[in-house]
Amino acid sequence: MASFHKFRALRFSTNTFSQLYSTNFASGARHGFSRGFRSHSSLSSCEPKILKLEDYASGAEAERDYEDLRRIRQEFDAAKLSFLKIPEALRAMPKLNPEGIYVNKNLSLDNIQVYGFDYDYTLAHYSANLQCLIYDLAKEHLVNEFRYPDSCMKFKYDPTFPIRGLYYDKLKGCLLKLDFFGSIEPDGCYFGRRKLSPSEIKEIYGTRHIGRDQARGLVGLMDFFCFSEACLIADVVQHFVDAKLEFDACYIYQDVNRAIQYVHRSGLAHKEIIADPHAYLVNNGRLLRLLTMLKEKGKKLFLLTNSPFYFVDGGMRYMLEASMGYKDSWREIFDVVIAKANKPEFYTSEHPFRCYDTEKDNLTFTKVDAFLPNKIYYHGCLKSFLQISKWNGPEVIYFGDHLFSDLRGPSKAGWRTAAIIYELENEIRIQNEDSYRFEQAKFHIIQELLGKLHAIVGNGRKSDVYKSLLKELSQERQNARDTMKKMFNSSFGATFLTDTGQESAFAYHIHQYADVYTSKAENFLYHPPEAWLHVPFDIKIMPHHVKVPSGLFRNQ
Fold it and tell me: Could you name the active-site residues (predicted)?
């Protein structure tokens, strides 16, 4: 958070806007503004007045304001007419690939000799049922172990509420969506399940920007399991507010987080998933194709996960057994399998590796100084991993879904990193729709007109005509913003973008820790292992974002 100011977001380009309506705005509807200004000839003839120099200046400024306001009104009226239909040029814009690989830093796959993978939400894909399971198990733990009110058992997971990349303020109890610079999204601040207004945000925080001191009280909800956690935190806060019970926001976070962690570490969720894999896991034949292709190309493969081996083994068998000759063969694909790695501490600690006996279900006492085929290892650390494997940082790429636990450590250690962001696929499909691009272009047009309006009139010369036009433009911009937001998520909007079109704080972290990002690891099947993945020449903050130019409306 403290380093947000080091990065400067690339705004939507307005260079093409100046010629936006050069052909059709001259014939736009003209609204008279004369009622908003008084004629200089209306002075009473009975009381002669000596005009001073500043009076002439003021009159000249009013005339200029009149002409500028009239021109902006013309452009706005013509714009509203052009909004009646989607331009053909917009329909012809190229679509982005939802299964594409998007590049933050140039990556030559030919230089990559070692491929490492996390398990959950990287190799294993889960159905929507998993979030409900985690939510319900954590809710029960709050009531049964932490003695939360029995009424909390009535809570239901709401998949429409949370998104990934939110922040919870442990001091003030608010759930926040932040932009690339660490400022609170005006429409993305909730206390419980109630959205706070901009005035309430200002009252609580003083400003939308989160300073360094305030950032210390924030916790990021970044992995795919955070959906159930964010929803449960908001539901508990709302329940306490409705019941008029006093509470400490920090305690609620600690209790909910402990409950979520218990669900994972106790094995409750693991056992439910393995007992009914059809309800939670998705069969994935393409994954096997990716892994075997890499092996055939002579690449080394390793699995590094925090999950216990029995859970990984059961899931891999279920996902791959339909495509493989026998169930145990998935282990033969990997050169090294490490379970219960305890990331992110794995990257900084000096814990030794232990060999896991799969038959006796215990750890052996022999020293691990080599990684042997078909063996399973527990714990360990990055330092020992590099010493034993002899794999150098730049030749290793690691795939994971958690930006902090999975990717921050490898990135700092010199590994190349690939973020697996499951939601990316759906968000790109929405961005490809004509309806979304139409609203985005409208937003850009209104934004430019508002910029012109603010630039022409000083604070001391804001007439009623100015205020009326400002109100109309602001409302039109808000309408476009609301429409785009609801296409993604009615509460918080898109994962990667704010409602104002800036990249989100989540996008900032991807840009910082992921060399490439994609929706599934299997998308690398579309690229040969010798491919060069390069940053687009027209680089934006996030290369999967399309900036729709307003000039598409020019020749309607």
Answer: 118, 120
Q: Is 255 annotated as a binding residue?
A: no
**Is 120 tagged catalytic?**
yes
Q: Tell me if 350 sits within 8 A of 383, measured CB to CB.
A: yes
Question: pTM higher than 0.70 for the full model?
Answer: yes
Please count the structural domains in the chain. Answer: 2
Separation CA 138–CA 308 (nearest Å): 20
Q: Is 120 marked within a binding site?
A: yes
Choose the catalytic residue: 120, 179, 406, 499. 120
Q: Which range marks the domain in which residue 226 is found? A: 128-275
The answer to whether 223 is a known catalytic residue is no
499 in a known ligand binding site: no
Beginning with the edge strand found earlier in the chain, give each strand of the sheet holding 336-339 in spatial order: 102-103, 516-518, 416-420, 396-400, 114-117, 300-304, 336-339, 376-379, 353-357, 362-363
Q: Of all helices (H) and strands (E), which one includes residue 271?
A: helix 268-275
336-339 vs 300-304, strand pairing mode = parallel
Cβ atoms of 127 and 279 closer than 8 Å: yes
Q: Do 258 and 305 share a structural domain?
A: no
Active-site residue (options: 65, 118, 187, 499): 118
Q: Round the average pLDDT of the chain to a whole number and report it.
A: 84
Assess whether 133 and 121 both reside in one domain: no
Q: What is the pLDDT of residues 425-444, one digit of tens each?
A: 999 999 999 999 999 889 98
